[in-house]
Amino acid sequence: MELFILFSILITLAAGFSYINVRWMKLPSGISLMLMGTIVSLLVIVEGYFWKGATLLVREALELIDFSEFLLGMLLSFLLFAGSLHVQLDDLQKSAKSILSFATLGTVISTVIVGYSFYYTMPLFGLPVPLIYCMLFGALISPTDPIAVMGILKKAKLSKSIETNIVGESLFNDGIGVVIFATILQIASVGIENFGAVDIGLLFIQEAIGGVVLGLIIGFVGYRLMKSIDHFQTEILISLAMVMGGYSLCHYLHVSGPLAMVVAGIMTGNRGKRLAMSDITRDYLGKFWEVTDEILNAILFMLIGLEIVVVNFEFGYLIVGIIIALLIVVGRFIALYIPSVLFKFKDSLGGLSTLKIMTWGGLRGGISIALALSIPDNPYKEIIVSVTFVIVLFSILVQGFTIEALIKRLSK
């Protein structure tokens, strides 16, 4: 019953803040909910100085939810499937080389750059962190968050090519980032001496390739079932089964659930909508997943804002977080520039202007926080979690607020 009350409060707050935003503020929904949640958290923290019971009460309520398990184990599957339904396969194929390069090589380059930046920055503040944990931090913070990215870009007027690259990269590098994170976490757990290059390669292939293959199977089975009937209620139920059953199967088989959901969503949104659904089913299924996406996004961004109450924000962590956030922007530009030059698609992509937009528009969100919180208890977890929160707040509130102005400026 306590959990139901907590979700009731979250939904009520999200509805109230969404109304205020639509009525007066007119910001992208992700930014407005994150901003409101952050303000509420700060008010609770300030009130805690006068009445310590206020902060304690909110902490106890939020501890009812395991944020990492809630996002990675449940929310992520719905959000990735809903987001990938809108991706057009034709547009994706045109930008396949750049999207795959950014999502794979770009994520690896970013992980290394951010990891070493973190490793050399932390001792300056008297907080040295072992290199393996710095690389773990680089892996969890490098992928752009498709949920945050798509929410912000809805209001930004981008060319079709740039939008496809940003959304496509964020959908796929999310899955790749989780795989890299899981690999480094296993190395940190068993020791690098017990984990060779062959083991790393096999784990990566199992997670990444296995996720794509299983996603194709889930998408194909869903397509065949939907094609054999014409009943929109049942077809929506089949899409839910694809997400919930498919994601659970991925967890059981130890393959990448995020990649599977993206592939299954793209198949359903293209081949499924075109060949397996009637006009009525296409309309209802689209609206169902659009509403589901909005509701879950509202809960997620509200939770991110409120989770500030739970995190230990020392002043030193705040300064480190801001410095690392700026270094991450530089690292992301390099991680995009190298593949674009190496595979010779920089000019066809739109040159440096496009890379600048993709750099500043590559937002971090709930996935990075969830991965940070999923790290087993160790002396460095608190530092990593706190710095990750600062970077996510900077990313969504600073980069999210200014991306539209940057796009307008570069368009001129």
Spell out the blueprint of helices and strands.
Blueprint: H1 2-25, H2 29-50, H3 52-62, H4 67-84, H5 89-94, H6 96-121, H7 131-141, H8 146-153, H9 160-190, H10 197-227, H11 232-253, H12 257-276, H13 279-306, H14 315-342, H15 346-349, H16 351-360, H17 366-373, H18 381-411
Helix pairs in contact: 1-2, 1-13, 2-3, 2-13, 2-18, 4-11, 4-12, 4-13, 4-17, 6-7, 6-9, 6-14, 7-9, 8-9, 9-10, 9-12, 10-11, 10-12, 11-12, 11-13, 14-16, 14-18, 17-18
What features would you highlight for this structure?
CPA1 family monovalent cation:H+ antiporter, single chain, globular, mainly alpha, 412 residues, Na+/H+ antiporter like fold
Overall pLDDT score: 89
Quaternary structure annotation: single chain
Number of helices: 18
Which second-level CATH architecture applies?
Up-down Bundle
SSE string: HHHHHHHHHHHHHHHHHH
CATH class: Mainly Alpha
And the CATH topology? Na+/H+ antiporter like fold
Gross geometry: globular
Describe this structure in words.
- It is a multi-pass membrane protein.
- It is found in: Cell membrane.
- The chain crosses the membrane at residues 6-24, 31-50, 70-87, 99-119, 125-150, 171-192, 204-223, 295-313, 318-338, 383-407.
- Belongs to the monovalent cation:proton antiporter 1 (CPA1) transporter (TC 2.A.36) family.
- InterPro entries: Cation/H_exchanger_CPA1, Cation/H_exchanger_TM, Na+/solute_symporter_sf.
- This protein is mostly helical and 412 residues long.
- It has one domain (67-300, 309-412): Na+/H+ antiporter like fold (Up-down Bundle), CATH 1.20.1530.20.
- The protein is built from 18 helices and no strands.
- The model has no long low-confidence stretch (mean pLDDT 89).
